[in-house]
Design goal:
The protein is of the alpha/beta class. The chain has 2 domains: 172 residues, HUPs (Rossmann fold), CATH 3.40.50; 92 residues, Pantoate-beta-alanine ligase, C-terminal domain (Pantoate--beta-alanine Ligase, Chain: A,domain 2, 2-Layer Sandwich), CATH 3.30.1300. Helix content is 38%, strand content 20%. β2, α2 and β3 form a beta-alpha-beta unit. α2 crosses α3, α6 packs across α7 and α9 packs antiparallel against α10. The longest helix has 16 residues. Bound molecules: adenosine monophosphate (AMP). The site of adenosine monophosphate has 17 residues, from α2 and β5.
């Protein structure tokens, strides 16, 4: 496993690998890797001779009140997971390498960042857009892989890459779940045993809503109420949002239009841990 820590080294390596005929896939992560990350690395390894996994806990996407300092970090363990999944290179820069003294650029993607996670986490998507642009410039991949788990983030990244004309394909892969349906997340380690058991309620709420849509329900408020009612059976759980919106724009719709794609979006707090999940559904499809 090659572990690269500077942008300059990364760019030289990519140039040499490409000259030697390899295509490049990349998987941007914040480390604390799990099977969700591994599935992205495996997907990339099926298509590309070189798979670079970046591991960088990006401070600018955390609000001051969030969990930056306690975010789980373990490069040794991550290296094993990357190797087992077929990754060939790790890019693990320091904060100073990515944000050297005097750094003063921020990328703002408009529109879709104003709702849901963007509204609840001010500045979050500016941090995401800026670091993703920097990572894509450093790794210059042919294809970059992201998880549907962070649904709104995938829309932000697609918009960023399109608007800036970055020469790379964005591929989004399905959410990998635990046996009870809980979406894998580096933050699940914050849940105690009782909270961990309760956390499967997100998946149950999503499945219930999807079943309602499959059975012909088209009223957004009915679907949203049903998701909320499922979630609120859990004592101590609070809901940030439980919504059904248009999949491409995140626009609300009172009545789900036929033959369109919608997305169910959930964000809740269980104890002190904030969890998000989502599911895309085709209406009448
Ligand atoms: P993170 O390390 O949480 O920033 O995630 C890095 C990448 O892995 C992002 O594209 C995430 O959407 C993706 N990811 C996180 N959890 C999962 C999961 N359970 N299944 C699939 N992809 C995931």
């Amino acid at each position: 496993m090659r572990i690269i820590t500077t942008v300059a080294e990364m760019q030289t390596l990519v140039r040499d690998l490409r000259a030697a005929g390899s295509t490049i896939g990349c998987v941007p992560t914040m480390g604390a890797l799990h099977d969700g990350h591994a599935s992205l690395i495996k997907s990339a390894a099926e298509q590309h001779g070189t798979v670079i996994t970046s591991i960088f806990v990006n401070p600018t996407q955390f609000a001051p009140t969030e969990d930056l300092s306690k975010y789980p970090r373990n490069l040794e363990r991550d290296t094993l997971i990357v190797a087992q999944a077929g990754g060939t290179v790790i890019f693990a820069p320091t904060v100073d390498e990515m944000y050297p003294s005097g750094f003063s650029t921020s990328i703002h993607v408009g529109g879709i960042t104003e709702v849901f996670e963007g509204a609840r986490r001010p500045g979050h998507f500016d941090g995401v857009a800026t670091i993703v642009a920097k990572l894509l410039i450093a790794m210059s991949p042919d294809e970059a892989y992201f998880g549907q788990k962070d649904y709104q983030q995938t829309l932000v990244v697609r918009t960023l890459v399109r608007d800036l004309g970055l020469p790379c394909t964005i591929t989004v892969r399905d959410t990998v779940r635990e046996a009870d349906g809980l979406a894998m997340s580096s933050r699940n380690v914050y849940l105690n045993e009782e909270e961990r058991a309760q956390a499967s309620s997100l998946y149950r709420a999503l499945i219930l809503a999807r079943t309602m849509i499959e059975n012909g329900e088209r009223r957004a408020t009915e679907i949203e109420h049903a998701m909320s009612a499922t979630l609120l059976q859990i004592p101590g759980l609070t809901i940030d949002y439980a919504s059904v919106v248009m999949a491409d724009t995140l626009a609300t719709c009172d009545v789900l239009p036929e033959k369109t794609n919608v997305v169910l979006l959930l964000a809740v707090r269980i104890g002190t841990t904030r969890l998000i999940d989502n599911m895309r559904c085709t209406v009448g499809g």
